[in-house]
Design goal:
Structural class: alpha+beta
Strand order of the largest sheet: 5-6-9-1-10-13-14-15
Distance between the termini: 70 Å
Shape: elongated
Number of domains: 3
Number of strands: 17
Largest sheet: 8 strands, mixed
Strand content: 15-25%
Helix content: 25-40%
Length: 494
């Protein structure tokens, strides 16, 4: 790839988030995931003649709640539109969506980047719409099947401003957005189940067009022709798709060709995007207000009631962790990225206020996350519960076991789901704190290494580590390190 440093990516994301609701947007059909095909379809979802949609009030409430979580404007009047296009899994022949008057207008979220900086990403709009069904093409070579279980499920389409400039920023934006949705309980964010999907809009432009106005503002060249990468369903894939498309567009332009506006798909196995169809403009969908649904009127009282019951958001939680527990900004960001992480920490700290917050964080982010990742588990499914990890930390702090032995105990807890005390008792892992016992071990080590004792007393002080190691080895790691160090120093001074 030539001269990639001279180019800049312009990225905007359309995130489709399935609303947590027991029933669909315009019918009473269930939204349970994983049911047999076509078992959760009402007459409305199947577009039977004469069937009229009835709005699900709870879904509207979920949208308002999300808008408030995104620091966004809530429009008191919104309209549902018909988005017309044909596809076999869209039985109505149109999708009920919102176009000119969505429920939620402009907002913003702040993302944290690896270099320690932060950036605000604008939200253009959030609109409420129904999902289409699902086409299945891989069951038989010559047949396609239609599953209407998803038809009519309530979706939020959250559209960002084209403020994103890299794969990292896009990934952090989706992570932060997903975290907010999970905190407020409007979407579970399970990308593997399809409840959160992302369309990536990407174009490029030359950096050399950059100049400065008299007001000191950066003025860049016009946006290039964009490609839309549809239905990217993992954080990793978002980054890979952007990196590939960035390179592809540069290569197309460098070869003297043009970028055409189109919809593309990302192939996870090959790590590349490929053309799907030319991109339709909005007017191609022939939007018009849905005649079966009246305008939605939202009152200030309703908005204020929802706002009053809004749960604690990630940024507020992060600030509390930093201010109350003196946790670093980096560690706090990791904890609040998933509501379950933060709750796990809270349970441990609430179990014993004397516990060191930094030690708790180190155990969660280090040892626990490592084993969870190795076993492909989420923290909510951890074999080691918060209260059990808290007890292990207490046993370290009261010198029942050493930090080194605790690592082995923790792995055993993870494998067996047993309590730390039971493992320690069964394997006789309690730390030796009896001074006479430690002194006895030290005497034997010194007696067996008289030459090294003389060398130490002659000035080779680095040998102190050797003696400590020998004592710990002889005690099978159970001797209290602080006592070992203190008693050795006293003995070697004689």
């Amino acid at each position: 790839m030539q001269n990639s440093k001279n180019w800049e990516t312009i990225i905007g994301l359309e995130v489709h988030a399935q609303i947590i609701s027991k029933s669909k947007l315009f019918s009473g059909a269930s939204t349970d995931f994983g049911s047999e095909p076509n078992t959760q379809v009402s007459l409305v979802d199947a577009a039977m003649p004469g069937m009229l949609p009835v709005i699900n009030k709870y879904c509207v409430e979920q949208v308002i709640k999300t808008g408030l979580g995104l620091n966004a404007q809530i429009n008191k009047r919104s309209v549902f539109d018909r988005k017309n296009y044909f596809y076999p899994d869209l039985p109505q022949g149109y999708q009920i969506s919102q176009f000119t008057q969505p429920i939620v207008g402009k907002g913003s979220i702040e993302i944290d980047l690896k270099d320690g900086s932060s950036k605000e990403i604008g939200i253009t709009r959030l609109h409420l719409e129904q999902d289409a069904g699902k086409s299945v093409h891989d069951l038989e070579p010559n047949k396609s099947y239609i599953d209407l279980n998803r038809s009519g499920i309530a979706l939020m389409e959250i559209v960002s401003e084209p403020d994103i400039r890299s794969a990292e920023e896009a990934q952090e934006y989706v992570k932060k957005l997903r975290s907010i949705l999970r905190y407020i309980g409007t979407c579970d964010g399970n990308m593997e189940e399809g409840s959160l999907r992302c369309d990536v809009n990407i174009s490029i432009r030359k950096k050399k067009f950059q100049s400065r106005s008299l007001l000191g503002e950066n003025i860049l060249g016009e946006f290039g022709t964009r490609s839309e990468i549809k239905n990217v369903n993992s954080i990793k894939s978002i980054g890979q798709a952007i990196d590939y498309e960035f390179k592809r567009q540069i290569e197309v332009i460098n070869s003297g060709k043009e970028i055409y506006q189109e919809t593309r798909l990302f192939d996870e196995k090959k790590g590349e995007t490929r053309s799907m169809r030319s991109k339709e403009e909005a007017h191609d969908y022939r939007y018009f207000p849905d005649p079966d649904l009246p305008p939605l009127e939202i009152t200030d009282n309703w908005i204020n009631e929802i706002k009053k019951n809004l749960p604690e958001l990630p940024d507020v939680k992060k600030a509390k962790l930093i201010n109350q527990h003196k946790i670093s900004s980096y560690d706090a960001s990791i904890l609040v990225s998933d509501k379950n992480n933060a709750e796990f920490f809270d349970k441990i700290i609430d179990g014993n206020k004397k516990r060191n917050p930094k030690n708790i964080v180190n155990w969660i982010i280090g040892d626990l996350f490592s084993l969870l990742n190795k076993n492909n588990l989420k923290i909510k499914n951890s074999p080691v519960k918060a209260e059990d990890l808290g007890e292990l930390i207490d046993l370290i702090e009261d010198s029942t076991i050493s930090g080194k032995i605790a690592k082995n105990v923790f792995e055993e807890m993870f494998k067996t789901k047993k309590k730390a005390k039971d493992i320690i008792e069964k394997k006789s892992l309690k730390q030796i704190t009896n001074t006479d016992e430690i002194e006895s071990i030290i005497e034997k080590i010194l007696a067996n290494n008289k030459d090294k004792v003389e060398q130490y007393k002659s000035g080779k002080e680095k040998l102190f580590g050797f003696f400590v190691g020998q004592v710990m080895k002889a005690s099978r790691g159970k001797a209290n390190p602080e006592q070992v160090n203190k008693l050795l120093e006293e003995r070697l001074k004689e």
